[in-house]
Amino acid sequence: MFLGEASRKIHRVMKLGTWNVRSFYRAGSLKAAARELARYKLDVVGVQEVKWDKEGTVRAGDYNFFYGKGNENHQLGTGSFVHRRLISAVKRIEFVSDRLSYIVLRGSWLHIILVNVHAPSEEKSEELKDSFYEELEEVFDHFPKYHMKV
Fold it and tell me: What is the pLDDT of residue 71?
């Protein structure tokens, strides 16, 4: 490698986060969250307990917010904030259940799969916890082995 080659290489850093927001069901909470993410200069953030009953995408500041699979009682639900400069890298978003989703980002040599989960708490039934972890394992086993999984 020549010295000139090293200086031309570009390394991109992607800042990831996760946040249990406890609800976006209150007016103005989505925009407030987007402002906080921008303040911390985060690129992709998985959120839990969105509590919206539909699936879709909305713009929130410099971010696109992808959400889905809450339930009709406005409980649970996951979502992902993706900064607008990374939107072109989003290859796929899948909302598996009200507790599990993932986003696939296109990389130079491999894809990056970001799994977003809201696991049942300790006081939940063993049956619910077992079901959740079986679903997570099933989803994870379907990912290609050569992609990066977070």
Answer: 64
CB 77 within 8 A of CB 71: yes
Kindly tell me if the per-residue pLDDT of 138 is higher than 80.
yes
How many CA atoms within 13 Å lie on the side-chain side of 72?
A: 0
3-state class of 130 per DSSP? helix
DSSP string over 22-85:
S-S-STTHHHHHHHHHHHTT-SEEEEE----SS-EEEEETTEEEEEE---TTS---EEEEEEGG
Whether 141 and 149 have beta carbons less than 8 Å apart is answered as no
pLDDT tens for residues 42-86?
999 999 988 887 889 999 999 999 998 766 666 788 999 999 999
pTM of the model: 0.85
Q: Are 69 and 77 in contact (CB under 8 A)?
A: yes
Burial of 73 (0-12, 13-18, 19+ CB in 10 A): exposed
**Best CA proximity match to 70, nearest among 89, 97, 45, 90:** 97
